[in-house]
Amino acid sequence: MARRKLPVPKCWRDLARPEYKGELMLGNPNSSGTAYLMLATLVQVFGEDEAFRFLQSVHPNVNQYARSGIGPMTAVTRGETALGSTVLHGVINEIVRGFPVEPVLPCEGVGYEVGSVAIIKGTRNADAARRFVDWSLSVQGQQVGLDVKEYAIPTNRAVPLPPQVPKLTDIKVIDYDFAKYGASDTRKRLLERWERDVNALPR
Amino acid sequence: MTHRRLILAWLAAGLGGYLLLPWYILQDGVLGVAWMRDWLGRDNASAVVQAVRHGRPWLAPIGLLLLAGFAGLVRAWPRRMRGAALMAVGATGFAYFLAQGFAIGARGWAFDVLSARFGELATGQYGMGIGAALSGAAFVMLFAIGLAERGAFKGDAFVAASVVAVAVLVAVFTFFPVVKILISAVQDNEGALSLPAFTRRLFAEKVWGVGCLSGATRCGVAWNTLLLALLCAIGSTALGLAFALIVTRTRFRFKRALRVLSVLPIITPPFVIGLGLILLFGRSGLVNQLLEWAFGIQPTRWIYGLQGVLVAQIFAFTPIAFLVLIGVVEGVSPSLEEAAQTLRANRRRTLLDVSLPLMRPGIANAFLITFIESIADFGNPIILGGNFGVLSTEVFFSVVGAQLDQGRAATLGIILLLFALSAFYLQRRVIGRKGYTALSGKGDSGLPTLLPDGIRRACYAVAVPWALLTVVIYAMALAGGFVETWGRDYTLTLRHYVKAFGVEWGPHGLLWTGAAWNSFWTTVELSAIAAPLTAALGILAAYLLTRQRFLGQSAFEFGTMMSFAIPGTVIGVSYILAFNVPPIEITGTAIILVVCNIFRNMPVGVRAGMASMAQIDRSLDEASVTLGARGFTVLRTILLPLLKPAVVAALVYSFVRAMTTVSAVIFLVSAQYEWATTYIINRVVNGDYGVAIAYSSVLIVMMLVAIVIIQKLVGQRRLGRRAVAGGASAGVVELGGSAA
User: How would you classify the pairing of strands A83-84 and B104-105?
Assistant: First the structure.
């Protein structure tokens, strides 16, 4: 960023500025859940039509729609692109590893997702499975992620947070509608529209 | 000759599996002794105990059918009748064996129709285990022996058993999963049959669009795939041929170095070349940084796309073309070339009119194999593809990503399969029906002709720069393992190696503290199990295809070759679909990793064996048969010694491929059985390049060592040819190590 003398963006809207041409990497929501999370967030922040208009205006700046959610992050750390969109803890992980990267939480608001764990119906080892799920929800279980330097925010509030993990209260988090945007017909419709209205356009 | 002892042995095996061994697969594996402590329990009991004590009476008929197999031993009956009895018992037994396995799953009847008809079952059954495997194998073998008793396969039980066994294995581990995934191609995502959904997916704009010709952004992925494969096959075959000619027909001084170099990309985990290319040509790569520093040229991202993938694939697949070609180039009989020269053909004419036509099967094979490798390749497009999508990556993202569209994945898989099969068919047409026998039983002593000067220079001009570039890319990629953080802090360090492969001396002996040891040992162990099985199965199938004639041979060939044409991603998904539920419930075990590797890599063994056997004159086996040898003896004493290069090639290739595979195993690994490559990929995804590169370097070195060991163990094919004129090295030495 410094070398190309680019200003640091503050909001989603900033990404459409012409000086970022070819410097922004987003995820492809067809393959990346993270990228779909971003798409759904934008739809909830701006409203659907406005969100797609915004994505169209950003499209000329995008150098690649990466296949994985973490793809833009590794590209930024390697210097392959200046800006990328990913999940917050991915950025923190890189900062802790010593890369000169910086997270920007867009001023319009950000979405979120909750990691999950499930037991398969009819399993041969139901008791062991239940014990594992109990453990993974416990303070002790959730501490493991932090111990191996994965700085996602634990769902168990009793887990003591290291300074690297941002406090949810400091972030403008939107009220993400999991029921609606997790449903497969909403997802399918948004993905098809993204493919038609955004990805198919020339850059 | 009858096969009494053989029949008895298989009946004993089948009954042993039925009466004594655990019928179902054990959660902790059958190799431990834990199951013996509770050998009558619900999980561990043999079939007969399951039928009597644990409410699984449907297992009882299997025992009765096994007993019926003793009809094959009745001396009073004529031989053909015993054969018919064996076939009937084998076929009925195996059919019932499969039927009960598929009909009754973990929670009772597997199909609603059955529970409606017969009422709910009180208990279900788990996946089949060692006992079931033995009984099933016994039925299959009784059937095969019955065939031989009735005079099929010239009454040779070995040939009959081999054909039937290979056919059944291929059916279970290649066809069954593919059928499973194809079914999901014609289903909509709720599981109901839907033809419109299938056609819509098949002819989608994203697959077949030709927009790029008229100025739009992209063409369909199908066209992308074909274009890439074509360019890659041409490039790799030409380079491979140049290398093979240099190694066999010039006095080039660094032949050994060339051989080692050409092996390197094969023993490299797939993404290392991509990573090296990025470090070299990427936006922050050395070349771009240099250009920017020297000329102020803005770094571009040209490496991401068709160009980058193509370069990486040619690096990756030229060695495969080389391995296929070297055996054939060496096999061209020098005496034919000497004959041509006696008739006053110059060296150029000899090469073009005699040697090259004789190499045609090899060239066609190399082209076919690199073409199929390219369309099935997954590692390079996923790292360097950028916005350039090909079918194999689209398949992966259809299943794994946010789309979760199994039907689309299956449909794209079908298109891929069609491409590969077309390539296969074309290759058959090219070779045609001409004979290419060049290694006969008659004494053959001559020297390969040296290349004419013009062609030699052309070969050098192409191969030497390529070789140098390989060195640079490897140097780039491997250097990354010794610096603190690539791209930022270039301080030298051994930290990554310690993190991955640390060893400490604890109070109870050696402690493997490194993070990589677990996946490392798993990978080495399972690859070492898979490699000899792969090679044996491949060479056996090649023998059956080239040296035997039987009904359904072309279907047999199609079956053994098919898994090669299926991209790893499709195999991975289909294995999960097929083997996650009874009767075969092996996901998450070591078995599925071994099996997957065997059946994915077997076609290369088949190809190598067939190409080499095509060069060995049949008069050799005929002489042996005249002296009273039967199928197995001919294979063991005549063909195998002459096939050593092919055996080495098959062993090396299957071991190395197993160690470096990503696309299929990435679906099949579990916490307990993790693969080296998937561990590395996870490190890369997490941006932990240091450990990833350190691990890759260790793998590369280890596989080099393994190749040398395999070569020493198997030994070299010794052909009586004269020593090279004026050279100190004997002809045998030059011939040896052909597959290295």
Answer: unpaired
